[in-house]
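Practice problem 4.
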């Protein structure tokens, strides 16, 4: 019998891996521009998105559901200025928020309480993701003529640095 939540979560695994690749492309752009704080931020974001995919994989394994590891499309590589990667990332995080909310709603619609509970962490996480990306977007937009101001902001604020959260779901392979 088809399981709509399992199908949708496997699709989200693909979306998370794709986001990880896109963030690597942004990080490489900033590295090539010798903007190490922005590069580091996006390298960390890439790992975080990969870990989100692996959390979903682990959940599928834990609940004895099918896991499909997807191919992902090539990321966008060309950026017009230092604001473009952050603009892309902000839109991506907003889209992921919609996807996570749809997954939560799908679990609720099918009275899949385990999946609904699993998705709660991601709902909370997306609030933080959109907020931090929106803040970064505001900063780089103001600093587009002097990118070192954006670098200084990231160095000073520590944006995107991992904080320990005991409610974080486990990731497949035990890597976080």
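Answer key:
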């Amino acid at each position: 019998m088809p399981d709509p939540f399992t199908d949708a979560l496997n699709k989200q695994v693909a979306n998370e891996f794709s986001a990880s690749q896109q963030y690597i492309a942004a990080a490489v752009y900033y590295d090539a521009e010798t903007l190490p704080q922005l590069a580091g931020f996006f390298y960390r974001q890439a790992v975080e998105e990969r870990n989100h995919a692996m959390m979903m994989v682990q959940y599928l394994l834990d609940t004895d559901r099918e896991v499909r590891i997807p191919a992902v499309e090539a990321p966008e590589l060309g950026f017009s200025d230092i604001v473009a990667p952050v603009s892309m990332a902000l839109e991506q995080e907003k889209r992921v928020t919609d996807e996570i909310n749809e997954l939560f709603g799908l679990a609720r619609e099918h009275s899949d309480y385990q999946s609904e509970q699993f998705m709660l962490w991601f709902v909370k996480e997306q609030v933080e993701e959109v907020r931090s990306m929106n803040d970064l977007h505001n900063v780089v937009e103001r600093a587009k003529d002097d990118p070192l101001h954006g670098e200084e902001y990231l160095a000073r604020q520590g944006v995107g640095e991992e904080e320990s959260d005991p409610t974080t779901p486990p990731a497949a392979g035990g890597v976080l």
